[in-house]
From TrEMBL:
Function of the molecule: The RecF protein is involved in DNA metabolism; it is required for DNA replication and normal SOS inducibility. RecF binds preferentially to single-stranded, linear DNA. It also seems to bind ATP.
InterPro entries, sorted: DNA-binding_RecF (IPR001238), DNA-binding_RecF_CS (IPR018078), P-loop_NTPase (IPR027417), RecF/RecN/SMC_N (IPR003395), RecF_2 (IPR042174)
Subcellular location: Cytoplasm
Keywords linked to the UniProt accession: ATP-binding, Cytoplasm, DNA damage, DNA repair, DNA replication, DNA-binding, Nucleotide-binding, SOS response
Pfam families reported for this sequence: SMC_N (PF02463)
PROSITE patterns: RECF_1
This protein's encoding gene: recF
Organism of provenance: Gemmatirosa kalamazoonensis
Family classification: Belongs to the RecF family.
GO biological process: DNA replication; DNA synthesis involved in DNA repair; double-strand break repair; SOS response
Gene Ontology, cellular component aspect: cytoplasm
Residues involved in ATP binding: 40-47
Name of this protein: DNA replication and repair protein RecF
RecF/RecN/SMC N-terminal domain location: 13-360
Length: 385
């Protein structure tokens, strides 16, 4: 593996303080510069630790859990505090604190002691990517998994996308509520139509940015799958029912097309109580040798494509922030053959390998490439126990 380039800028987690988060009562964890390997039996808190670190980026659970479920059983709330080192000249806070109280469901963020005007201003505070065996759902799961992947990657790296996503979701909830109302009362179709300009305006941004990202990264996806060990050609493509004319201003063209599609489907929407047209129905098509990986891929091929998606995510974060993100590895090589695991670590190394936190059930699961990292153990939510 290429040795990490010391000059490459990286974000580094120096310390993480966990209070009543999942099965951690009170832990202060120092992180060495290159990273840490955490060894512990099943169910002792390894994934919880990675979830806590990732929370500092997304301000929500990477596993899709609700905030109240992250609070240690019986505790009133949780708090995470991190100290981060950044390369000279890069922007971002050095002290990040996130707290959540069960009563009132209040979430508070502090960046260097100050509360940002909006929660979303703190998104991406600690850039990181998680690699985990459950990532296979990105490939084998429903289109919703892949849309969520795109939404996370793009919302973390494009302010315009984040803002459009928030507005689009708000308008969609309201239009669907109006549709259900119209279906029940037999009128009020116009109340659903009211939300269509907003859906078209913000949906167009989602559509354009998703397509642009997929087009820009498609070759890299194919190259990564090949480098990991696929012999057939892998392909990634954004698919959408929306037909948009080529235009100098693609957002304006997508907006017009979406407005038309929403109007055309309105009667059907009223009948079914849901919105049929829009980027919330699109997908990221992944194929190998021309065949849908979701339907025909082997478990190993699906894992490979999922890892390629995570590597693309890391590259996107790197391009946006200029820094190497943290790599959080949740025993990701468990079911892969040694050759593939080795190639993936080589690819991670080629990217400059940011600070790495690897969690594994046994010391024998640590790949040779990462045996140089410091080690600790975890038992019942206590590190170093
Ligand atoms: N809100 C919570 N409060 C207290 N404990 C919790 C909470 N949520 C989950 N747990 C506990 O955390 C443990 C699971 O931790 P985690 O998912 O990190 O396991 P792991 O070490 O990664 O295991 P595996 O190797 O099986 O993936 C379980 O014992 C579960 O009961």
């Amino acid at each position: 593996m290429t040795s990490p380039d010391a000059a490459r800028p990286r974000v580094r987690l120096l310390r993480l303080a966990l209070r009543d988060f999942r099965n951690f009562e009170r832990q202060d964890v120092p992180f060495p510069a290159d990273g840490l390997v955490v060894i512990g039996e099943n169910g002792h808190g390894k994934s919880n630790l990675l979830e806590a670190i990732y929370y500092l980026q997304l301000l929500r659970s990477v596993r899709g859990a609700r905030d109240q479920d992250l609070v240690r059983f019986g505790a009133p709330g949780f708090h995470l505090g991190a100290t981060v080192a950044r390369p000279p000249g890069s922007v971002g806070a050095h002290e990040i604190g996130v707290g959540f109280e069960r009563t009132g469901k209040k979430k508070r963020v502090r960046l260097d002691g100050a509360e940002p005007p909006r929660l979303s201003d703190a998104l991406g505070a600690v850039p990181s990517v998680i690699f985990s065996p459950v990532d296979v759902a990105l490939v084998a799961g429903s289109p919703a998994e892949r849309r969520r992947y795109l939404d996370v990657v793009l919302a973390l790296t494009s302010r315009r996308y984040l803002s459009a996503l928030q507005s689009y979701r708000g308008a969609l909830v309201r239009r669907n509520a109006a549709l259900r109302d119209a279906a029940r009362t037999g009128r009020g179709e116009s109340r659903a139509a009211v939300w269509e300009p907003a859906l078209a305006e913000h949906g167009a941004v989602l559509w354009v940015e998703r397509r642009a990202w997929c087009a820009a990264r498609a070759d890299a996806f194919a190259a990564l799958c090949a480098a990991i060990g696929e012999r057939a050609a892998a392909r990634m493509r954004y698919t959408s029912a929306l037909v948009v004319d080529d235009a100098a201003d693609p957002v304006a063209a997508a907006r017009t097309a979406l407005e038309r599609a929403l109007a055309e489907k309105r009667l059907l929407d009223v009948k079914r109580g849901v919105t049929h047209a829009g980027p919330h129905r699109d997908d990221l098509e992944l194929t190998l040798g021309g065949r849908d990986l979701r339907l025909y891929g082997s478990a190993g091929q699906q894992r490979t494509a999922a890892i390629a998606l995570r590597l693309l995510e890391a590259a996107t974060l790197r391009d946006a922030s200029g820094c190497e993100p943290l790599f959080l590895l949740d025993d990701p090589f468990a079911e892969l053959d040694a050759r593939r695991a080795h190639r993936i670590l080589e690819l991670l190394g080629d990217a400059g390998l940011g600070q790495t936190v690897l969690v594994v059930p046994r010391a024998t699961d640590i790949p040779a490439e990462l045996t140089r990292l410091e080690r600790t153990t975890i038992r019942d939510g206590v590190l170093g126990a």
